Amino acid sequence: MKQTTNSILMIRPVAFRMNEQTAVNNYYQKVVDGLLPATVNAKAQQEFDAFVEKLTAVGVDVTVVEDTLNPDTPDSIFPNNWISFHENGDVALYPMFAENRREERREDILDILEDKGFVINNIVDYTSAEEDGFFLEGTGSLLLDRTNAKAYCALSPRADEELFIEFCEDFDYAPVIFEAFQTVDSERKLIYHTNVMMCLGETFAVICSDCIDDKKERKMVLENLKENGKEVILITEAQMNNFAGNMLEVRGANDKRYLVMSAAAHQSLTPKQIEQLEKHAEILSSSLDTIEACGGGSARCMMAEIFLPRN
Question: Which SUPFAM superfamilies does the entry link to (predicted)?
């Protein structure tokens, strides 16, 4: 199994704003004062377009789908939470915590991918868990080490343990389960998505291990990464708050590896960390300030990796 892909899906926003329904447990979202919703969306679109341009310029195959005004989906720019694509042609659909995010699941997106020559064999649908109040938000909640068949998950209101184990059984992954916390108003609170505190590359892992308060769990997670030969690059909680954990390794032209992140994440890294990362992949960063502030997500969240076979 490949760990990285050249193909990604991105959704261009039409009504992007701070989502009041996700702000209850996404402590990264901020109210940007004095900006009209139309201005916020226009800024997000500018950031989105510049980001896509940077990716395509290095040869990443980006499928951009325009969002629709109806239904109202302020977070549609983060498709990796509701869908994942797998090498055997499976597509997984995930149960979402926020009711207005459930509307992001669009069947026509699968048609668009099939029109591009991607092969979809089977849909594994976990969305009925929403009715019982259980959630698992795609590759926000699940970090997949595809090559070593391991899945990492920081449990939270958006990542249910039983659902995660069910996913691992269905897709043949060994589960690595832990809890990760961040300090919010001097209280330790669960981090809402695993992919803000951790990134898995082919030959490295970026992780804020300080978030794993339980020492045994922390040791277990780090040992799992090391036994699969990953160079572990530690980041601080302050760096994580600048989205330095929210990175994704992709492949560009000639199979060249790129580590994609936001400008804020890039600026938060030390010269030593940059040197460590650049041994593995070239860094590609783009300014996502509005998207990060209002959406509480960053570069990783905006890219749904496509591993599907092609005709």
Answer: Pentein
Task: Quick: pLDDT tens for 77-120.
Answer: 999 999 999 999 999 999 999 888 999 999 999 999 999 999 99
What is d(CA 18, CA 23) in angstroms, rounded to the nearest whole number?
8
**What confidence tens digit (pLDDT) does each residue in 157-177 have?**
999 999 999 999 999 999 999
**CA 58 remoteness from chain centre:** 21
Q: Total domain count for the chain?
A: 1
Could you tell me the pTM of the whole model?
0.94
Task: Tell me if 39 is assigned to some domain.
Answer: yes
Q: Looking at the DSSP assignment, which residues form a beta bridge with residue 181?
A: 190
Residue 262 maps to a domain: yes
* Assigned domain for 2 exists: no
Let me know if residue 83 belongs to a domain. Answer: yes
Instruction: Show the 3-state SS of the chain.
Output: CCCCCCEEEEEECCCCCCCCCCCCCCCCCCCCCCCCHHHHHHHHHHHHHHHHHHHHHCCCEEEEEECCCCCCCCCCCCHHHCEEECCCCEEEECCCCCHHHHCCCCHHHHHHHHHCCECCCEEEECHHHHHHCCCECHHHHEEEECCCCEEEEECECCECHHHHHHHHHHHCCEEEEECCEEEECCEEEECCCHHHCEEECCCEEEECHHHCCCHHHHHHHHHHHHHCCCEEEECCHHHHHCCCCCCEEEECHHHCEEEEEEHHHHHHCCHHHHHHHHCCCEEEEECCHHHHHHHCCCCHHHCEECCCCEC
Q: How many CA atoms lie within 13 A of 104 on its CB side?
A: 31
Alpha carbon 170 to chain centroid, angstroms: 21
Q: At 244, which CATH number? A: 3.75.10.10
Range of the domain at 219: 7-305
